[in-house]
């Protein structure tokens, strides 16, 4: 394998490409998957009973007067400046922003070294999104702007150590913005907040493990503990985390997937037999038509734009479905073109590569109706051109349920389709005409779909569309759920799930000689409810920021306060570390970019990307001075202290050499045979994927069409439908800056995007201060002091950033089957902040006097 710039600095800045490997699949070829097919670990159960206990809505607006430690970001405005919406994503601005952020956070030397090792075959995996890397060559700059920001943040040369926490109480820290908390520096020492304390103070690792062990072993039942996982956690520590939880005796393993692509797995498993997507990166290059539904690649998965550009240059048509017209769906200037002499001038001066051919600006939650409209047109086209639109041969050979599905689509009225979707019959025909005579079709989707009330059913309609066209299991065609965090898909593969199937538990029992619990555990929503109701006493978070990622922020905060012990493992400070249980531990760990040295030497971990490729992650930067431990070492230390003689697992051996962990994984999880050998191949390896080969691992071996129910929801005349989104300067809950330049927002995050007509009917002007109240089953939640921004969004819909708007999302409002919070469907009303202001002041003064 050729050297990357990380090992040969002379290659930096040149148009060097990492060489193609002989075993890498080329465009149009199918990858070697090893033994196939292996079933996925999603176990969809439409009849599953969730925790339905009703918890009254928290007093969101007044919580800041009740608790000195703020669970919500401060209300202080940071200075909004409005500009026009940008129409081209990336370009030279993205390059400049990447360099600025990298050099500011980690310094020129440290920041540059980190970027040169990012996503290289002999480097480390990006800690942000899970978009796949090319199988063949990789460029010197194999990263995007957001990946550069995430890596720079991880490579930060500032330390938030004991002195920092001695200077600042938890209350003071909570009054920092989320950006300033992240920018405080890397966590370097284990810290503890003891009962009654208002500061974190240093603690030795053995003492920290002793606190965890005593609290866990004092529980009346192992189910009184919750073990939460962030999608940033690599495979090896994720496998150990679920192993420890199950040896301890519980399946309470909620993770961030419960809040994002749980709906995808719940829809894909019963229909195709695999809860993951079926395409490879090369398939996107070969596609004739690509649908992008409920996804904003320019901000959330910028490297996807390179694949879309290549597809367009190969002749593909793109249909975009989204309530907001995003720059990354319109046009793209590839920063890599600046290094190509033939394209550099065009990349600098031109308008970029146009991406979308048909843009359908759907209403929030209207995607199912829209898909039905497209398929209704396709059936009408099939009537006029028998055998040319629907792939009857594929349907007859590989599927069941087609007749009921077809009748369901044909019986849906155009009036219903147009009203719910907000898209005209003529516009839907334009999209259908692009699809009708094509077979290489890929549908991509993300949380704009999964976080709807009918997210699972909408994805079932996506599968229906792919199946009726025979557009699965061949080059250039298939399903593409675009995952968020770097290893959110891999964590599920490793067993991070509250409902793992018997086959996995049996394999775990055979390998580690213990009896795993079989009772289903709590997912995220159920965990929050159980914590709030006093059914649990210990919360352990392996990375992430559940407080800011989850729904109903103030309810989560109260749930945390009711725990005897909260434990947070992280790399940098976030708001979730501050709202704690009676005792709280803050434990510093390594990031992907850090060198992890153990007894056997420099360790590597692995991650699984959105398309089922498992590749190595090997840090290249010396960690900051301090007392950090790897995630593996933290989990093993906790396990040894807690389980004692009850465990037969050699936790020490696994900590000293991660190859030992991978040998265990190879014997437990199908597709990971010879894990250590395959991981060391440049670029990693593909996991088995049945649908990719038209091997559907459903009980009857067939792909299943679905007959869904299209539901219409009524709202009052003054009510609007809110969806939450990221800004361009954030990844998940991590805030890098206050800007969202593609949408023209600078210097502020507390904004609400509104249709100008909706603003006018409420007497609002641009930059007016407003309060937003959500309404759910007779209960209200109110956030104050947001700024109204006129924007091109469907009438009746509004949009705000998370985590600022998460307090409005009711804990009880979830997607059917998947139990995913409905952050893409929140009923709200909007009023000027000044309304009833005198009354509010009096109420607050009375509350403060009582406090």
Automatic annotation (TrEMBL):
Molybdopterin oxidoreductase domain segment(s): 186-568
Residue span, Molybdopterin dinucleotide-binding domain: 720-825
Keywords: 4Fe-4S, Iron, Iron-sulfur, Metal-binding, Molybdenum, Oxidoreductase
Cofactor(s) named in the record: [4Fe-4S] cluster; Mo-bis(molybdopterin guanine dinucleotide)
Signal peptide span: none
Region annotated Disordered, chain positions: 1-52
Extent of Basic and acidic residues compositional bias: 1-11, 23-48
Entry keyword Iron: yes
InterPro entries according to UniProt: Asp_de-COase-like_dom_sf (IPR009010), MopB_CT_YdeP (IPR037951), MoPterin_dinucl-bd_dom (IPR006657), Mopterin_OxRdtase (IPR006656), Mopterin_OxRdtse_a_bac (IPR010046), Prok_molybdopt-oxidoreductase (IPR050123), YdeP_MopB (IPR041953)
PANTHER family per UniProt: PROTEIN YDEP, RESPIRATORY NITRATE REDUCTASE
Family: Belongs to the prokaryotic molybdopterin-containing oxidoreductase family.
Protein name listed in UniProt: FdhF/YdeP family oxidoreductase
Organism: Hymenobacter mellowenesis
Lineage: Bacteria, Pseudomonadati, Bacteroidota, Cytophagia, Cytophagales
């Amino acid at each position: 394998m050729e050297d990357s710039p990380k090992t040969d600095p002379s290659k930096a800045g040149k148009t060097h490409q990492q060489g193609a490997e002989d075993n890498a699949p080329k465009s149009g070829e199918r990858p070697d998957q090893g033994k196939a097919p292996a079933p996925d670990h999603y176990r969809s159960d439409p009849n599953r009973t969730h925790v339905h206990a009703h918890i009254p809505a928290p007093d969101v607006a007044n919580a800041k007067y009740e608790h000195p430690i703020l669970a919500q970001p401060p209300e202080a405005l940071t200075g909004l400046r409005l500009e026009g919406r940008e129409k081209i994503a990336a370009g030279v601005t993205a390059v400049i922003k990447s360099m600025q952020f990298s050099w500011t956070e980690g310094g020129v030397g440290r920041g540059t070294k980190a970027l040169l090792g990012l996503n290289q075959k002999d480097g480390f995996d990006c800690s942000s999104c899970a978009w796949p890397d090319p199988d063949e060559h990789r460029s010197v700059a194999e990263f995007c702007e957001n990946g550069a920001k995430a890596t720079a943040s991880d490579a930060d040369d500032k330390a938030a150590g004991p002195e920092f926490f001695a200077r600042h109480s938890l209350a003071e820290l909570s009054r920092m913005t989320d950006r300033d908390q992240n920018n405080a520096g890397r966590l370097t020492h284990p810290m503890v907040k003891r009962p009654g304390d208002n500061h974190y103070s240093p603690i030795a690792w053995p003492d920290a493990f002793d606190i965890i062990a005593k609290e866990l072993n004092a529980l009346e039942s192992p189910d009184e503990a919750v073990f939460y996982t962030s999608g940033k956690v690599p495979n090896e520590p994720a496998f150990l985390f679920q192993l420890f939880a199950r040896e301890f005796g519980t399946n309470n393993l909620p993770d961030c997937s419960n809040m994002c692509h749980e709906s995808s797995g719940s829809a894909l498993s019963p229909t195709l037999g695999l809860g993951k997507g079926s395409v490879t990166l090369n398939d996107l290059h070969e596609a004739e038509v690509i649908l992008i539904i409920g996804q904003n690649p320019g901000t959330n998965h910028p490297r996807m734009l390179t694949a879309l550009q290549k597809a367009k240059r190969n002749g593909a048509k793109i249909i975009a479905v989204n309530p907001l017209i995003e720059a990354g769906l319109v046009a793209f200037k590839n920063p890599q073109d600046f290094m190509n002499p033939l394209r550099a001038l065009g990349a600098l001066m031109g308008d970029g590569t146009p991406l979308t051919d048909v843009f359908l600006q759907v209403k929030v939650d209207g995607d199912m109706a829209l898909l039905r409209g497209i398929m209704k047109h396709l059936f009408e086209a099939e009537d006029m051109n028998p055998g040319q639109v629907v792939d009857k041969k594929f349907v007859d050979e590989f599927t069941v349920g087609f007749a009921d599905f077809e009748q369901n689509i044909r019986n849906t009225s155009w009036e219903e389709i147009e009203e719910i979707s907000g898209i005209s019959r003529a516009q839907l025909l334009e999209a259908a005409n692009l699809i009708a005579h094509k077979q290489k079709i890929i549908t991509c989707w993300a949380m704009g779909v999964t976080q709807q009330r009918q997210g699972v059913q909408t994805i079932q309609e996506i599968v229906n569309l792919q199946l009726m066209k025979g557009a699965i299991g061949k080059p250039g065609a298939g399903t593409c759920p675009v995952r968020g965090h770097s290893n959110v898909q891999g964590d599920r593969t490793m067993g991070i799930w509250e409902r793992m199937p018997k086959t996995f538990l049996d394999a775990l029992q055979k390998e580690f000689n213990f009896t795993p619990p079989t009772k289903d555990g709590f997912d995220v929503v159920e965990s929050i409810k159980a914590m709030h109701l006093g059914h649990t006493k210990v919360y352990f978070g392996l990375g992430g920021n559940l407080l800011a990622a989850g729904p109903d922020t103030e309810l989560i905060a109260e749930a945390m306060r009711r725990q005897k012990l909260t434990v947070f493992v992280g790399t940098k400070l976030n708001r979730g570390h501050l709202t704690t249980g009676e005792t709280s531990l803050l434990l510093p760990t390594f990031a992907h970019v850090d060198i992890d040295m153990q007894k056997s030497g420099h360790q590597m971990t692995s991650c699984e990307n959105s398309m089922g490729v498992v590749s190595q992650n090997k840090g290249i930067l010396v960690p900051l001075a301090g007392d950090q431990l790897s995630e593996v070492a933290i989990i093993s230390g906790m396990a040894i202290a807690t389980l004692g003689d009850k465990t037969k697992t050699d936790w020490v051996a696994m900590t000293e050499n991660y190859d030992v962990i991978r040998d265990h994984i190879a014997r437990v999880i199908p597709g990971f045979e010879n894990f250590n050998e395959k991981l060391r191949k440049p670029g990693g390896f593909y996991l088995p994927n049945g649908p990719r080969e038209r091997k559907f691992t459903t009980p009857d071996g067939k792909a299943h069409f679905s007959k869904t129910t299209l539901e219409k929801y009524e709202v009052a005349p003054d009510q609007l439908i809110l969806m939450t989104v990221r800004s361009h300067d954030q990844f998940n809950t991590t805030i890098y800056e206050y800007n969202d330049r593609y949408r023209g927002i600078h210097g502020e995050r507390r904004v609400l995007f509104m249709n100008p007509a909706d603003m006018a009917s409420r007497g609002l002007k641009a930059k007016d201060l407003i309060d937003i109240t959500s309404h759910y089953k007779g209960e209200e939640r109110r956030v104050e002091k947001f700024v109204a921004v006129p924007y091109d969004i469907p009438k009746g819909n509004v949009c705000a950033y998370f985590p600022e708007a998460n307090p409005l999302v009711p804990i009880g409002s979830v997607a059917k089957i998947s139990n995913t919070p409905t952050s893409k469907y929140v009923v709200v009303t909007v009023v000027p902040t000044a309304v009833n202001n005198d009354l509010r002041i009096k109420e607050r003064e009375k509350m403060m006097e009582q406090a």
